[in-house]
Design goal:
The complex is a heterodimer of chains A (480) and B (523). With 480 residues, chain A is an all-alpha fold. Chain A contains 18 helices and 2 strands. In chain A, a hairpin with a 4-residue loop joins β1 and β2. The longest helix of chain B has 34 residues. The chains are: A mainly alpha (480), B mainly alpha (523).
């Protein structure tokens, strides 16, 4: 194996090795803090390795292609896994039962995400996707004595398995049409004529991947799973897992100049509009923060589908910037939920009434959640605004006026529930129920990470140049 | 660099107030007051020191008295670019002055969470000053949206919930969604402009002066102009888009209403003058008849609905809509005289509306109601408050000697040559203004008293506040020349957009000012 390929593989190797090491460690002795420390160490090393991998790309192996997109997605996946791991420590402290296995699952899923984001072969695509999804079943149902958590896990298992079946069937049909499993060549093979099989194959592929991104109309699982899953698992699902799938989808679209026929663009436009509107509209009446975040993520991936519709010019850069902004804002929002839920066992503290008047007890924690909400709503001075700016710029540049109109309408509707969450934090009512973060949350690892993420949301919102540069450089390095 | 300080000072003052709350109420309020006084003194000092009558160089675009520029987001050619000219300076002085008033008038009204209240209040002012200074379109949009968030909190947290279903949070959310959604339309327009510029030159730029040079096809220009117009029309507000205003005013605390009527509405007029007209001169000119028609509609609609209101603050809110109709007509008439009148009218309305809102706040502190039906016969029970009330009512209906008269007169006089019928129709609106103003006065202060017990009169703080506004209104009503001199160059630039064929002659630009001087000597 050439040296460059080894460097490119190193993050995956490190994450996988950490997973194995942690598993063996647990078999030998159960120590929660040590397990967390080992996982965090592995993830930090992998992040550093990812930075080195940046120097050697582009690198191609038969199964994987490490281009700018893969490296950028890898950075995001590793960073959000790292945050999840640290937050899990706070969250699982009060958990009754085995805590350590959660990190094994988390690390396996992260490795799967890395593979998926870099795959250029249908085999690696499937392996990556399943490696990402399988541990998630376990993570979502981790608090299996809670009914909702178990329900979330099983729901995700059943629906995800169905989506995988769709995906496999689509792959089979595409193979039947073109006799090719390498994505680039497969797409080129469709050049000669899509055919009935090809059409059906692409459609089924879209269903399978759309399910993972929870794009309308494949979104039905999202709110329940978000609500039921333990905080850290949901966080991972909302950030790392979606980033990986979207990176893959973008590579698919970029490497398929042919398939960008008008019909596919129309279908994607329809999916995007539906996701923006349905996601935002359904969130309006929710009174559970995790459900709201679930619907909000449906809407956000609706916005992001614009990048797939346009798929040239600014598209890769926009995707990079938007994914960064989305991941940061989502991590901050879920971080607060996890911290508030972490003192007591049992179900997560996600109903909005628990957050009533939080500001007057925990001003800084509330500031984090406020910043996260404003960022998700796309208000200036937060990083979310830069993402929205990029998306609208992309839509205007490509003159996709329907999609631009959809973003504006969606944002206007979305404001309603983001503001509702925000204002709840500041209201004071007599007899509010007190469930709260621990008093020293700000100096513990989880609190520090959440604060850091919030500061990053503000800083990158005020001075986005480094983020833009990163997305531009990495978005520019692509393998055709 | 002083321009940056103008934005940073209220911003930092707000943070300080938040953290100083633990020292007690008085220090918090004092810090806010001192912050705004410093801001006011700085802007007045700038006014005294700078010369705004720079001769505009032919074809070189606007001249700035002060400028500050650093690169911000290189990728899209976005600069942190602030600039000051006569118009923005006048509006910043206004912002600082009303900021002082807003702090003072909430001195007794706001008793809970004072630190956070002043944080929001000062951040609104910082955002507004940013709007008036920003000359990069991205930066302008940035501040335009940024000032909404603290305003939202101000209404939602310290507002008053009215009767059935009119909650303060609902009003605040409505305000936010209206302005944010229309703001996004403006963002689309800005981006459309930038990409049109990119297509012709190959460079990204959000700079005002660069984009002024962009050549657009008439169709594109029309659509982009409309995006800007809608954003500003929501904020002004222009009638079909005014839905948020009465609710926001009625539910906001006094300081919020003062800021809203006095400053936030003015950002829209400023935006039209600074961006919508100069960036799309032809499209705006073609749009002028429609805009004037909307202005007329606003005058009559505001007046008619004001008459039927039962809530003092809603009443004043509807009169604001009527006054902004005159501003809209003046802006789109394009005559130099009318444009100068718009500036005077903006200030006059800011002062008179702020005065009325502060007075109704004071009335609420004494009567604990805003319902007109529960007032009446207050003239003898309140000391000097009804006298001030009468003055502001007179000002708002445009009695000579007040600045409102000067503004409305100049707008109507200047518009007459271009659109006589609009002026004639609008003049009848003035009669309606007299009607609704007197109705308000009658229902609040005259008629049979509900009780004979005297209520607390004005204390020295309240008295000084009212007296300062009265003095300003009379000063501008008698001798508006210093103000007109300051904004003349800027408004002349705008005026010239409406006559594309004629080359600017140095003598001509001096004429409107001279005409005004003459007018005032003749009277």
């Amino acid at each position: 194996m050439p040296f460059a390929a080894l460097v490119a593989y190193l993050p995956m190797i490190l994450v996988a090795a950490t997973a194995v090491a942690v598993m063996l460690g647990i078999a030998w002795r159960r120590e929660h803090t040590v397990t967390v420390a080992a996982s965090v160490l592995g993830l930090v090393l992998a992040l550093i390795a990812q930075a080195f991998a940046w120097r050697v790309i582009p690198v191609q192996t038969p199964l994987l292609s490490f281009d700018g997109l893969a490296v950028l997605a890898g950075l995001l996946i590793l960073a959000s896994t790292l945050v999840c791991a640290i937050l899990s420590h706070a969250y699982l402290e009060s958990f009754h039962g085995a805590r350590e296995e959660f990190y094994v699952l988390l690390l396996c899923a992260a490795a799967g995400g890395l593979v998926l984001a870099a795959s250029r072969h249908l085999a690696s695509l499937f392996v990556g996707l399943e490696l990402l999804s399988m541990p998630l079943y376990g993570m979502l149902a981790y608090a299996f004595h809670e009914q909702r958590s178990l329900e979330a896990g099983i729901k995700y298992l059943v629906l995800s398995a169905a989506a995988s079946a769709f995906l496999l069937f689509g792959m089979a049909l595409l193979y039947a049409q073109t006799g090719e499993l390498r994505i680039g060549l497969l797409m080129a093979g469709l050049n000669d004529g899509l055919g009935l099989w090809g059409l059906a194959g692409i459609g089924l592929l879209l269903v399978g991947l759309g399910f993972k991104l929870s794009v309308v109309p494949f979104h039905l699982w999202t709110p329940d799973v978000y609500e039921g899953g333990p905080g850290p698992a949901t966080t991972f699902l909302a950030t790392a897992s979606k980033v990986a799938v979207f990176a893959l989808l973008l590579r698919l679209m970029l490497s398929a100049p042919v398939v960008q026929g008008d019909w596919l663009r129309s279908v994607l436009t329809g999916l995007a509009l539906a996701s923006m509107l349905v996601g935002n509209l359904l969130a309006l009446t929710q009174s559970n923060l995790k459900r709201i975040l679930g619907y909000s993520s449906i809407a956000h991936f609706g916005y992001l589908l614009i990048a797939l519709v346009v798929a040239d010019g600014l598209a890769a850069e926009t995707t990079g910037v938007y994914l960064i902004t989305y991941v940061l804002s989502t991590l901050a929002a879920f971080g607060v939920v996890i911290l508030v839920s972490s003192t007591t066992g049992g179900e997560d503290v996600a109903a909005l009434h628990y957050y009533r008047g939080l500001f007057w007890r925990r001003p800084f924690l509330t500031a984090v959640l406020t910043v996260a909400m404003l960022s998700l709503a796309g208000i200036p001075a937060t990083v979310g605004f830069i993402g929205k700016f990029y998306l609208i710029a992309l839509g205007v540049e490509a003159q996709r006026w329907w999609l631009v109109g959809g973003i504006i309408l969606g944002s206007a509707i979305g404001l309603y529930y983001y503001l509702r969450v925000t204002i709840t934090l500041f209201l004071v009512e007599p007899g509010m129920r007190r469930r709260d973060a621990s008093d020293d949350w700000g100096v513990r690892a989880g609190g520090v990470v959440v604060l850091a993420v919030a500061v990053l949301v503000i800083l990158l919102g005020l001075y986005p140049s480094p983020m833009i540069e990163l997305a531009r450089v990495l978005g520019g390095i692509a393998i055709r | 660099m002083i321009l940056v300080w103008l934005i940073v000072i209220p911003f930092a003052g707000g943070l300080l107030c938040w953290q100083m709350e633990r020292l007690g109420d008085r220090p918090t309020r004092s810090i806010a007051l001192v912050t705004m006084l410093v801001e006011l003194l700085m802007s007045l000092w700038l006014w005294a020191r700078l010369d705004f009558q720079l001769p505009a160089l032919d074809g070189s675009g606007a001249q700035w008295a002060l400028e500050f520029r650093v690169t911000w987001i290189e990728r899209f050619g976005i600069d942190f670019h602030l600039a000051l000219d006569g118009l923005s300076l006048v509006l910043i002085v206004l912002t600082a002055f009303l900021g002082v008033l807003a702090v003072l008038c909430s001195w007794n009204e706001i008793v809970r969470r004072i630190g956070f209240f002043h944080l929001n209040l000062l951040w609104i002012l910082a955002g507004v000053v940013g709007v008036f200074l920003a000359i990069d379109l991205f930066l302008f949009f940035f501040f335009w949206e940024l000032m909404l968030v603290p305003m939202y909190f101000l209404i939602a947290l310290w507002g008053h919930s009215g009767s059935k279903g009119k909650t303060r949070i609902g009003a605040a959310t409505k305000f936010f969604i209206y302005t944010q959604a229309s703001g996004l339309l403006m963002l689309v327009s800005i981006l459309g402009l930038v990409f049109a510029h990119h297509a012709s030159t190959g460079e990204y730029s959000f700079s005002y002066q660069v984009l002024l040079e962009t050549t657009l096809s008439p169709t594109l220009s029309r659509w982009l102009m409309l995006g800007f117009f809608i954003a500003f029309a929501v904020k002004l507000p222009v009638v079909p888009l005014h839905g948020w205003l009465p609710d926001a005013h009625a539910q906001a605390p006094t300081a919020g209403s003062v800021d809203l009527a006095g400053i936030l509405l003015k950002t829209a007029a400023y935006g039209l003058l600074r961006f919508a007209l100069p960036l799309f001169p032809e499209a705006s000119q073609a749009f002028a008849p429609i805009a004037m028609g909307l202005g007329l509609l606003g005058i009559y609609y505001g007046a008619a609905l004001a008459c039927g209101q039962q809530n003092v603050k809603r009443f004043i809110a509807y009169t604001s809509i009527a006054h902004m109709g005159f501003v809209l007509i003046g802006i789109y008439s394009g005559s130099a005289l009318a444009l100068q009148g718009v500036v005077v009218l903006m200030l006059a309305h800011a002062f008179s509306a702020a005065g009325l809102f502060i007075l109704s706040g004071q009335l609420y502190e004494r009567l604990h109601t805003r319902e007109l039906g529960k007032m009446g016969g207050l003239w003898n029970r309140l000391g000097s408050l009804p006298g001030f009330w009468l003055f502001f009512i007179a000002a708002s209906l445009g009695i000579p000697v007040t600045a409102n008269f000067v503004g409305e007169f100049m707008v109507l006089f200047g518009t007459f040559p271009t659109a006589p019928w609009v002026v004639i129709t609008a003049s009848f609106g003035l009669v309606l203004a007299a009607v609704y103003s007197l109705i308000l006065m009658q229902r609040v202060h005259y008629g049979p008293p509900r009780s004979e017990t005297p209520l607390k009169g004005l204390d020295s703080r309240e008295f000084a506040m009212m007296l300062s506004i009265v003095a300003l209104l009379i000063w501008l009503g008698i001798y508006p020349q210093p103000l007109l001199d300051t904004t003349e160059t800027t408004m002349d630039e705008v005026h010239r957009l409406f006559e594309p064929s004629s080359t600017p002659v140095p003598g001509v630009s001096a004429e409107p000012g001279a005409a005004i001087t003459l007018t005032w000597e003749a009277r």
